[in-house]
Amino acid sequence: MGGWQVRYDQLSPGSFAGELLEFRSDWMQLVRDRSNQAMVKSGVAWKGAITFSIPLSADGPVYCSGHPIHEPSLLVAHGENLPELHTPQHLDLLGVAIEEHALEHVLECQGIQFRITDLPRCYRLGDSSVQRDLAALFDELAGCDAVLGHDSIRRGIRDAVMLHMLELIAPDQAPPLNPTARKRMVDRAREYALSHLDEPLSILDLCNHIGASRRKLQYCFQETLGINPVAYLRALRLNAVRRELRTSTQAHGVQEVAARWGFWHLSRFASDYRTMFGESPSQTLRRTQLC
Question: Structural domain of residue 70, as residue ranges?
Answer without folding.
Answer: 5-128
